[in-house]
Amino acid sequence: RRRRLQRYLLIDVMSDRLFPIRTKTACQLKWNWTALNFVEGFSRTCHRTSTSPLTPENFNNFHNNDIVIEDRKRMLQGLWPESNCSYCKGIEDKGGVSDRLRQIDIPDLYPPELDKDPTATHVTPTVIEVLMNNTCNLGCLYCNPALSSVINQENRKFGRFEQNGVLLKPLVQSHDLAEHFWQWFPEGFPKLRRLGFLGGEPLYQKEFDTLLEMIDQYPNPDCELNVITNLMASPNKVEAMVNKILKLILKRKIKRLDVTCSIDCWGPQQEYVRYGLDLVTWERNFQTILENKWIYLNINNVISVLTIKTLPDLLERVNEWRKDRKIYHHFSAPTPGPSYLHPGILDPDEFVVDFDRILSLMPDQTDQDQISRQYMQGIRTSAIKSDPDPVEIRKLFTFLDEKDRRRNTQWRDLFPWFEKYRH
Questions:
Q1: Residue 267 Cα distances to 11, 157, 232, 241, 358, angstroms
Q2: Which of 8, 250, 370, 381 is surrounded by the most beta carbons within 10 Å?
Q3: What residues have CB less than 8 Å from 226, skipping those under 6 apart?
Q4: Which DSSP category does 214 fall into?
Q5: Cα(227)–Cα(119) distance, rounded to whole angstroms?
Q6: What is the mean pLDDT of residues 37-44?
């Protein structure tokens, strides 16, 4: 049964239905994609842009609010949105390959309204990502209380911290929006091409079980489900998730499953950055996903000041895993923040050798390989063409010292090379 499913999913029928808007700033994400954050009460058109308020009153208009409509109008004129998209603009201004450039030629994802009117600004979403709550079992350094209950509990325990531009504080809960999403689901889900379920950690959220029940009740055989997970659940829980979604695919309730596994580097440095992670457990669960070859397997990699030097150790393992099957690998800087973890805050030559080793370990055989290499080149260029930022460096020292105080950890034992930046 699984071999039959694997053959079915490997039939990759490409089409020429490409995003038709081709101005110098046009981004397919601005038309097809919305992320919904129920914890803080906002929507956005990608993880790099500013947010739009999301309330019970305006929920049904989340994909076509006034801010997004204005952004689309500016892109139709070849202009960058005034208050959004600075992340991609910054990368492109330095000659790098941005998310916008990576996304624009992905086929079959643009809204159907553009077939009739390529200048339409009120359109139907085809890609939705939803963050139901912040329940999570990790406290990653680049994360925040809206995405991690561990961090929120930590901030409640130790209270508000504000020093040298670093602010740590508990979360103020927003509206309860989940009920509005479930009301939208019967009509909205069948129109999607892709649905992402974010965390927090989905495998610890009861809403994830509700989602699978809703998919069973309101199927969409053309939709891909992407689950973004830190893989720090019990092996039995991971197996149960895989088997439950396999049944939905075999019944044609959904097209396929993507599992996006979050990991940034390797060794004790990774267990420090992704606080609460145990690499033995992570690798055991990753092997489960690896062995189920019908799953589209992704690795999501946040590149920060503290992960670049041991990222090559992870890439060596990824290359070994790739001997068994295809693995897609995605990279990003810690955006929208915190700013003091961005690799561009240090001396331009700090990571030159590391980036050279990273690029030497990245394959370049397929189009996807080339895109990933270009994206890594963009991050490298952004880092080595930036000037050192003493203000941000001071923030990072303050942040790490406070995290060590709270967690009884010792960052200097793992990142001794950073100490030379203290002035």
A1: 37, 29, 16, 27, 16
A2: 381
A3: 129, 194, 195, 196, 197, 257, 258, 259, 260, 298
A4: H
A5: 32
A6: 92
- pLDDT at residue 336 in the model: 65
Quick one: angle between helices 235-250 and 279-291, nearest 10?
Answer: 20
Residues 35, 47 contacting (CB under 8 angstroms)? yes
As given in the structure block, the two tokens for residue 280 are 């033995």
Q: How far apart are CA 196 and CA 254, in angstroms?
A: 13
Task: Name the residue type at position 193.
Answer: R
Tokens of 261: 């596994």
CA angle in degrees (0–180, nearest 5) for 53-342-406: 85
Nearest Cα to 164, choosing from 413, 412, 393, 422? 393
Cα 207 to Cα 68, 219, 242: the distances in Å are: 28, 17, 16
Alpha helices in 336-388, H assignment, sequence order: 352-361, 367-384
Q: Extract the tokens encoding 282.
A: 């992570």
Token pair belonging to 287:
């092997």
| pLDDT the model gives residue 423 | 76
Q: What percent of the chain has pLDDT over 70?
A: 95
pTM here is 0.88
326: Cα separation from own chain's centroid: 20
- Distances from the Cα of 204 to the Cα of 60, 229, 296, angstroms: 27, 10, 21
Confidence at residue 360, expressed as pLDDT on a 0 to 100 scale: 96
pLDDT tens track for 220-257:
999 999 999 999 999 999 999 999 999 999 999 999 99
Q: Average pLDDT of 334-340?
A: 82
How far is Cα 122 from Cα 224, in angstroms, rounded to an integer? 24
